[in-house]
């Protein structure tokens, strides 16, 4: 399988992390996260959104959006529960990640650590960080009572939220305020086959 990837992207990292844990080899095609001028040429026939990650299966079919790719790769494995309710819970967290976590924590990180122009976003950053802290507080409430997000074992829900939470400090977030989140991050990192975002 071929993954159109950006090394600094948490969305791409999620896919690499699950693939590593499942022992699935990926051919990585690196894309620039800042200069996107070649996206129509490279991704135009594969992903209408022209975004990474984009996964091309061995039969040539393509799939975009990290949550969709995670669910596809996890089908038939313990990372995606068979139980109908637990599967819906996984989807609940995937939607939460894209609606609450990614637009705030990931964007703040991008502005500060990736964009190269952090001063450009100085006026908008506090609102993103405030919303990001609300996201972390919601996770803290749940993880204070659960080892993992769904079913007390690591699923694609954990991998999806881990992707950007483990680098949240690069967005100016103080994870020490959330001990349950920090403990959960350690549990996810201790899973067999784990790789770091820069690994």
Short description:
This protein has helices at residues 10-22, 39-43, 66-74, 84-114, 125-143, 156-165, 179-189; strands at residues 2-5, 27-30, 54-56, 62-64.
Instruction: Please identify the top-level CATH class of the largest domain.
Output: Mainly Alpha
| Helix proportion | 40-55%
Count of folded domains: 2
What is the tally of beta strands? 4
Mean pLDDT: 97
Into which percentage range does the β-strand content fall? 5-15%
Ends: how far apart? 19 Å
SS field, number of helical segments = 7
What does the radius of gyration come to? 17 Å
Overview of this protein structure:
This protein has 199 residues and is an alpha+beta fold. The chain has 2 domains: 2-74, Glutaredoxin, CATH 3.40.30.10; 84-189, Up-down Bundle (Glutathione S-transferase Yfyf (Class Pi), Chain A, domain 2). The chain has 7 helices and 4 strands; from the N terminus they run βαβαββααααα. It has helices at 10-22, 39-43, 66-74, 84-114, 125-143, 156-165, 179-189; strands at residues 2-5, 27-30, 54-56, 62-64. Strands 2-1-3-4 form a 4-stranded mixed sheet, covered by helices on one side. A hairpin with a 5-residue loop joins strand 3 (54-56) and strand 4 (62-64). It starts with a strand and ends in a 10-residue tail after the last helix. The mean pLDDT is 97.
What would the keywords be for this entry?
199 residues; alpha+beta; Glutaredoxin; Glutathione S-transferase Yfyf (Class Pi), Chain A, domain 2; 2 domains; 4-stranded mixed beta sheet; 49% helix
